[in-house]
């Protein structure tokens, strides 16, 4: 087994021409402490419990001593932020260290919070402990939920003060992804009219991540179509699980369709289609129910900046495929949540799905708990009904809905046990609710006690399993005010 300092690598992004990035060494965190090391992610790199330990990890994560395979750089990108084009963004606090060849694929390794870069503008290049804990936990929670995401390898902190509204401890998250290319990387070259570099970027994504597209008649169109498909699938996954990203600027849209940049995100507690998790989003541009539409808006930007490589009409036709792709993927996920997967054409269940969401909204029902409780309900009324009713303001509304649901179930074949098991695999018991993250942050900040971070990491890796000893983590927040995140600014 190789150690962290000897990992096989192939730093392909670093071989791209000048204009793609700036070389930049990390500004080391002084006297770093390890908050958490994630063995599940380390295995992706070919490490195990004997090689993923101790000082080497701390040295890499804090930027104090990088292995020889690292060639740290900050990449250049632009982006539309809240609908406004910003020509220069770039990695202002993230550094790409290199690309490791793991046993089952390549992984780019990034530090987030490693100090200033040429793209930092007027900011400090740092991340604070509280927002880093949120990113670390949520990326692994999303992976546990089966939702495409960047991964988190490790989290380190330091007493170095970082000034936000108050002085806070600094931190660095070590992130992994097959690629960190964003829509904004394409916008960067288009805005500078560097169409040859735009083409090189598209070639890079194809060769690096989707070489099968090379054999298609129009590889750049196929690339756009692939991004559209992956984005539609990602939005379906977010909407089905109740995840609100909060800052869907085009620079936060991953070309691979990964969830990227965990800032003011939030999972829905009670169901509210219009929920806004980002306090600076005054117009609700990134509200929960706006996400699929905003993703299309961002895809339109991407298609427009790829036009030097594309036939215009073909690009428009590709964009027209987004809505049906999203709709089909979302209905399929919702049908599975209802325990009706594959039992009739998915469109026929659309009215039931819509009616269910309307009821949840009207009754202010906890979204995650509703689906999990429903997973225990049988074809005949039973004790599981009582737990479901308890989630409603008006239990009679639950009874009426259950009656209709059971009529629909009667049209399906199969045993209750099998359906319930399939529903428990579609409806998580555990999500990273804001109040859980808050608790872990408080212990880490106040006492330098990271046990709660690590407990949540383990819990959220298996969100569909019962884990009875931790069942209280599935409870709704003590009061609905917990929906308001006090730790989500960066
Ligand atoms: N503290 C900071 N120092 C320097 N640059 C920053 C800082 N915070 C944000 N930026 C930069 O501002 C822009 C928008 O920030 P945004 O919050 O979307 O990204 P981020 O959280 O820093 O990182 P990422 O998108 O890589 O997860 C990016 O160019 C980012 O690098």
UniProtKB/TrEMBL annotation:
The active site is at 251 (proton acceptor). Its cofactor is Mg(2+); Mn(2+). It is an enzyme of class 2 (transferase). It comes from the Bacteria. Mg(2+) binds at residues 252, 261. InterPro entries: SelO. Its EC number is 2.7.7.-, 2.7.7.108. Belongs to the SELO family. PANTHER family: PROTEIN ADENYLYLTRANSFERASE SELO, MITOCHONDRIAL. Nucleotidyltransferase involved in the post-translational modification of proteins. It can catalyze the addition of adenosine monophosphate (AMP) or uridine monophosphate (UMP) to a protein, resulting in modifications known as AMPylation and UMPylation. This is Protein nucleotidyltransferase YdiU.
